[in-house]
Amino acid sequence: MRIVAIESATPAASVSLAEDLRVIASARRVDRQGHVSFLIPALDFLFDQAGWAPTDVDLVAVDVGPGLFGGIRAGLSTAQALAGAVGARLAPVGSVDAVALRAATAHRKIWAVVDARRGEFAVAPYQPVPGGVVREGAVELVSAEAFRGILASDRTESLVVGDWEALPEAVFRGMHGIRTGRPRYPSSEAVAELGYARAVKDDLPHPDEVRPRYLREPDVRIKWSDFRREEPWQ
């Protein structure tokens, strides 16, 4: 199975080409506002390096969030356009899941964190299992103070991964049994692996049903009634 994986829900945008679980080529750039200008040139470069044509693609895996509103939109629209153009299947992947998948721990509970801006963080708990991780609860959007409360009430040895550096230092002050680690951002390689797992299980939604996962309303909402006259058809 030939896979294109797109990650643009965080400042670290990346694109990968993979055959099943083997990564063929990848590109990455850390730039909170440069996702649109990065994705298409990166895809063109990787197709050239791998000797692939777009019609070779069987599956497009894409991070649908939570994360940066603009980045999520850029990645999902690119993935939908590519999948629709070549008739490939579309696999939505969560950013928090992709972070947790690459956490290196043998026994500690994993808390994956994605900075959702405006003082809020998407977090979820995971248990490491052979070959990956299993999420133990829903992805929640919480404040830094609320996340500290969650960690304080857990009382298990935990590894916090993801964008924990965006949290205030006070979140971990006085905490015992809590360690921090990598990765900071989800990667397109992890998105490819999670998308492949969904595809082999035939656990893919219809492309029209794939939506961004923001967990809250967009920062800016357009009031369309300000731009058009509401009146009956003539």
CATH-defined fold name of the largest domain: Nucleotidyltransferase, domain 5
Largest sheet properties = 6 strands, mixed
Count of helical regions: 5
The H-level CATH homologous superfamily of the largest domain, spelled out, is ATPase, nucleotide binding domain
Supply the CATH architecture of the largest domain.
Answer: 2-Layer Sandwich
Residue share in helix: 25-40%
State the CATH class of the largest domain.
Answer: Alpha Beta
Our count of domains comes out at 2
Query: What global shape is seen?
Result: globular
Q: What's the mean pLDDT score?
A: 91
Topology as a string of helices (H) and strands (E): EEEHEHEHEEEEHEEH
The secondary-structure class comes to alpha/beta
Number of strands: 11
Rg over CA atoms = 19 Å
Query: Could you give the distance between the termini?
Result: 52 Å
Q: What share of the residues does DSSP label as strand, in percent? A: 25-35%
Spans of at least 5 consecutive residues whose pLDDT stays below 50 are 226-234
Give keywords.
234 residues, alpha/beta, Nucleotidyltransferase, domain 5, 2 domains, 5-stranded mixed β-sheet, 5 helices, 28% strand, globular
Please give the structural blueprint.
Layout: E1 2-7, E2 12-19, E3 22-30, H1 35-50, E4 59-63, H2 69-86, E5 89-93, H3 95-101, E6 109-115, E7 120-129, E8 132-135, E9 140-143, H4 144-154, E10 158-162, E11 178-180, H5 188-200
Parallel strand pairs: 1-4, 4-5, 6-10, 10-11
Antiparallel strand pairs: 1-2, 2-3, 6-7, 7-8, 7-9
